[in-house]
Design brief:
Elements lengths: L8 E4 L4 E4 L7 E8 L2 E7 L2 E2 L2 E2 L3 E4 L4 E3 L12 E7 L2 E6 L3 E2 L2 E2 L3 E5 L4 E4 L8 E7 L2 E6 L3 E2 L2 E2 L3 E5 L4 E5 L2 E3 L13 E6 L5 E9 L5 E2 L5 E4 L6 E5 L4 E2 L3 E9 L5 E9 L9 E10 L1 E9 L4 E6 L4 E3 L3 E8 L3 E8 L7 E4 L4 E9 L4 E7 L4 E3 L3 E10 L5 E12 L12 E2 L6 E3 L4 E9 L6 E13 L2 E16 L23
Parallel strand pairs: 22-30, 31-37, 39-46
Antiparallel strand pairs: 1-2, 3-4, 4-7, 5-6, 7-8, 9-10, 10-13, 11-12, 13-14, 15-16, 16-19, 17-18, 20-21, 20-23, 23-28, 24-27, 25-29, 26-28, 29-30, 31-33, 32-34, 34-36, 35-37, 38-40, 40-44, 41-42, 41-43, 41-45, 45-46
């Protein structure tokens, strides 16, 4: 049409005009084939559009590209015929290598993976024609054997598509209606409204031609199919000796057993569609609500944790009192003070009751020296204070008050004082505090000293007070130099009278 075009050109059927395909090729073209939007060109050339391309090249509508890279590009001699089947391009000619690997006069280019492969041992002579009919590839040329078998000028290659499916690396037969956990077709039990369970399955093609699956090959059917979903579809085309994967999920919204049929559309003549059954069980969920009550505090733990459980789950509830509190028992689903184990067959609640612990101290008093002393004697006392309660205490007051054992002790003779180990003093649980001090005995009657020890205990932010008394009597003797009514004794001496 007067347009410069090197060995290849395009005729526009709408405008009836010629156009070049880039800069074309540097030598003869013998074969053309279309796959999708790509045009494949075979012949006897070394470049296409200025790109190195050994006897075969691809035009994508705007630029040229070689089939392969580096030393693995194209075939090592001329190409006479091209044919397309699915994603496979079959190449015939007079060559001994394709993509750098041995291939006798015929080879396959996978347009999906961009890789070359031989067709068995090939043919004994050049190929001049290729044609695809269904799963058959017809070959014509000047040869006497094809794949090692006698074939005079014409041969037939069976393009096989062999689909297989696996789950957990275990084969799943076409038509399998017995789901098992071992191959992933049994999804097991799933909590209603819980997280979905997913399973991954593998499709393989052990044939010698590309397996066509399509854009959404995997579909689900059956009464329970609404509870299953296809999370990920496999590749639309699966080359020979290749694999692809798809993912299914199970997410029940109600309790019960559900099943669905998986169907995989493909072009394997005797296994389309490829089917198998999947199943799963949805279990109801119930909530266990823990609570605390009482004047004390603590923690309540659940094992297993969470609070929401599948029906039938046994949950162990543990109550741990805080320092200064005691656990006094369960209420709600559990009772008593022993183990609380709840079987989840409904929404339930359990309460741990805690009581605030009170401070407790013990006080003992010991007096040193004789039991009876004279007035004015200094008496030594030792007060021993022990924290026998469950919480630490603060000794806020330690006081001793002498009190009479007889009724005639005057008010002026009463003494009150604090012990030498002055409060406040903190006593940990089990700790002992000893206070030693002195008191001067007064009056002429027996006395006792009444010690009052006051302690404050704080547990969980609440204060409590306890007071404990201890007594130590002392007897005061009457001085021997004094007589009745405390008057000095008078000694009367009687002398004889002399006669006058």
């Amino acid at each position: 049409g007067g347009v410069s075009a090197n060995f290849i050109a395009r005729w526009d059927t709408t405008t009836s005009t010629w156009a070049a395909l880039g800069t074309g090729l540097d030598s003869a073209v013998y074969a053309l084939a279309v796959s999708g939007s790509d045009l494949y060109v075979g012949g006897f050339f070394t470049t296409a559009g200025g790109v190195s391309a050994k006897n075969i090249a691809r035009w994508d509508g705007s630029s040229w590209a070689a089939l392969g890279t580096g030393l693995s590009t194209g075939v090592d001699d001329f190409v006479n015929a091209l044919a397309v089947s699915g994603s496979d391009l079959y190449v015939g000619g007079y060559f001994s290598t394709a993509g750098g690997m041995p291939a006798n006069n015929i080879a396959r280019w996978d347009t999906t993976t961009s890789t070359w492969a031989a067709l068995g041992t090939g043919l004994s002579g050049p190929v001049y024609a290729l044609a695809v009919s269904g799963s058959d590839l017809y070959v014509g040329g000047y040869f006497t054997t094809a794949g090692g078998k006698a074939a005079h000028r014409v041969a037939l290659a069976r393009l096989s598509y062999e689909i297989a499916v696996q789950g957990n690396d275990s084969a799943i037969a076409n038509g399998d209606s017995t789901p098992t956990a071992s191959d992933g077709t049994d999804f097991g039990t799933v909590a209603v409204s819980g997280a979905a369970i997913t399973r991954t399955f593998t499709i393989s093609n052990s044939g010698n031609a590309a397996l066509t699956l399509g854009a959404n090959a995997v579909t689900l059917g059956g009464a329970g199919s609404n509870y299953f979903a296809v999370s990920s579809q496999p590749s639309a085309t699966l080359p020979a000796d290749a694999t692809t994967r798809f993912v299914l999920s199970f997410h029940p919204t109600s309790a019960g057993a559900f099943s669905a049929t998986v169907a995989i559309a493909n072009n394997d003549p005797d296994e389309n569609p490829y089917t198998f059954v999947i199943q799963g069980v949805g279990l109801a969920e119930y909530t266990l609500t823990p609570a605390m009550a009482g004047t004390g505090s603590g923690t309540v733990s659940l094992d297993p944790p969470g609070g929401t459980y599948i029906a039938g789950t046994v949950v162990t509830v543990t109550a741990t009192p805080a320092t200064g509190s005691t656990f006094t028992g369960w209420s709600g689903t559990c009772s008593g003070t022993g183990l609380c184990a709840v079987t989840m067959d409904a929404n339930q609640g359990v309460t741990a009751n805690f009581t605030l612990a009170a401070p407790r101290i013990a006080v003992s008093v010991a007096r040193e020296g004789a039991a009876t002393v004279t007035a004015g004697t200094v008496v030594t006392y030792q007060v021993t204070i022990t924290n026998v309660g469950p919480i630490a205490v603060v000794l806020t007051s330690i006081q001793g008050t002498p009190q009479p054992l007889a009724q005639n002790l005057t008010a002026a003779e009463v003494q009150q004082f604090d012990a030498p180990c002055a409060a406040p003093l903190t006593l940990a649980v089990g700790a002992v505090q000893r206070c030693t001090f002195t008191w001067t005995a007064a009056g002429n009657n027996g006395q006792q000293v009444n010690f009052v020890v006051t302690a404050n205990g704080t547990a969980n932010g609440q204060a409590a007070t306890v007071s404990v008394s201890g007594f130590a009597p002392v007897l005061i003797s009457v001085p021997t130099a004094l007589g009745e009514n405390n008057e000095p004794q008078r000694i009367y001496i009687f002398l004889p009278l002399a006669a006058k």
